[in-house]
TrEMBL record:
Nucleotidyltransferase in keyword set: no
Designated name of the protein: ABC transporter substrate-binding protein
Leader sequence segment: 1-28
Native organism: Arthrobacter sedimenti
Entry keyword annotation includes Signal: yes
InterPro entries xrefs: BCAA_transport, Leu-bd, Peripla_BP_I
Family indicated by similarity: Belongs to the leucine-binding protein family.
Keywords: Signal
Entry superkingdom: Bacteria
Residue ranges of every copy of the Leucine-binding protein domain listed in the record: 47-342
Length: 422
């Protein structure tokens, strides 16, 4: 569910107040990897959680579910005893500020961990500021593949899967439906290029024949659609975002429609009458994450009865819970300690092939009991398994599968998982 937001002005007073803090930490830089390096206890005994809400305009609705989820997680953590017997605090939020201003505000407020932002393009300014302040940043929604190698010094994590993680799932959907060959029609740009390559690689590894793929620009997909149709593949995987509707219309015009079409998450939408009748009947699409349980939805509504959407709520809840578990494992609330302990509490490993993970624990309270029995636990939360790797990426990604009806609208029909070794 990609989102694009425009920034607002930075408050000069906050920028000035943080200048001294950054000057003290700049000499330390962000070299090394805080995810895997030992950290000495340096916290003040109070675990403070910050939230970056970077959604504005038409996407402002995405702020509410993340805020509700963070509050719900902290309520559950505090009900289980908080951090070392003291309540975990959620710092005030400032969605009226841009990402950099919010990050500076959180660093000045002595946040021990920050959750956010939503938009992948907003990650870099937050990472630049918070990593120098030694505050780990856990995004519940960033999916850009390039963020796996972000220069964060090990302070950047995400509970959302990278875009390319859906590549094997899209290939599997084609093969499971009986396809022996596919073609990938992709929108030009980083998203289309990276994901189409992931689909191609996964399809070839699964034994599918991959016919030549074609790129297109939004609003100019006719030639690419005709080229894909001419190759006569058993299925066409469409990797697109804002150009998806036009590409689907052109595929339909070229004779490729219905169950022969598989859509990436960026192309997922309720198309209805915007496309010819039955154009997508039988088509399948994936979106990251799993549908929230009724119990979790109830928990969110208890926090915010006016909530209309639950986008990224599960990933936010898990980010907060993982941070608290990392602090519990370290017996320290400092950002360095949290960053150094997120991998082992998530069921991940700092080395490849490092053995079988612990049996999953499903809540903060349950996982605390696991920590009392041993140093490593495996938190599987509302968004599913996490298991961070040394890049701060999740290694097992859950996806919901949707199938389109004759009305060109999707309904949930299943789920898939994809993973990689850390």
């Amino acid at each position: 569910m990609p989102a694009h937001r425009s920034p607002v002005r930075v408050r000069a007073a906050l920028a000035a107040s943080l200048a001294g803090l950054l000057s003290m930490t700049a000499c330390a830089g962000t070299g090394g990897n805080a995810r895997t390096e030992p950290a000495e206890a340096s916290g003040d005994g109070v675990l403070r959680v910050g939230l970056i809400l970077d959604n504005t305009g038409d996407n402002a609705f995405l702020n509410a579910p993340q805020l509700a989820a963070a509050k719900a997680a902290i309520q559950d953590i505090n009900a289980a005893g908080g951090h070392k017997g003291r309540p975990v605090e959620l710092l005030p939020v400032h969605p009226d500020q841009d990402t950099a201003a919010q990050a500076k505000d959180l660093a000045a407020a002595k946040a021990d961990v920050a959750i956010g932002p939503t938009d992948s393009s907003h990650a870099t300014p937050a990472v630049d500021i918070l990593s120098r302040a030694h505050v780990p940043l856990i995004s519940p929604a960033n999916t850009a593949a390039g963020l796996s190698t972000s220069a964060s010094g090990g302070y950047y994590f995400r509970t959302a899967a990278a875009d390319v993680a859906q590549g094997p799932v899209l290939a599997k959907l084609a093969k499971d439906a009986g396809a022996a060959s596919i073609s990938v029609l992709y929108q030009q740009g980083a998203y289309g290029k990276d994901l189409s390559a992931a689909v191609t690689d996964a399809a070839q590894q699964s034994g599918l024949k991959v016919l030549p793929g074609t790129g297109f620009k939004p609003g100019d997909a006719a030639e690419a659609a005709r080229s894909a149709a001419k190759a006569t593949p058993d299925a066409v995987v469409l990797v697109a975002r804002d150009g998806a509707q036009g590409a689907l219309a052109e595929l339909h015009n070229a004779g490729v429609s219905g169950s022969k079409v598989i859509l990436s998450d960026g192309a997922f939408a309720r198309y209805g009458s915007a496309l010819p009748s039955r154009a997508l009947e039988g088509a399948r699409a994936v979106i990251p994450g799993q549908l929230p349980t009724a119990a979790f939805q109830g928990k969110l509504l208890a926090v915010d009865p006016s909530l209309k959407d639950v986008s990224y709520a599960a990933e936010t809840y898990d980010a907060v819970t993982l941070a608290a578990l990392a602090a519990a494992r370290a017996q320290d609330d400092a950002g360095r300690s949290i960053a150094a302990n997120l991998i082992p509490v998530s069921g991940g490993t700092a080395t490849s092939g490092a053995g079988t993970p612990q049996a999953p624990c499903l809540s903060y309270k349950e996982c605390l009991g696991g920590l009392a029995a041993g140093p490593d636990i495996n938190y599987d939360g509302e968004s599913g398994p996490v298991a961070f790797d040394t890049n701060g990426d999740i290694t097992t990604a859950a996806f919901s599968v949707f199938t389109y009806g004759a009305d060109n609208n999707p309904t949930p029909t299943g789920h898939e998982t994809a993973g990689h070794s850390g």
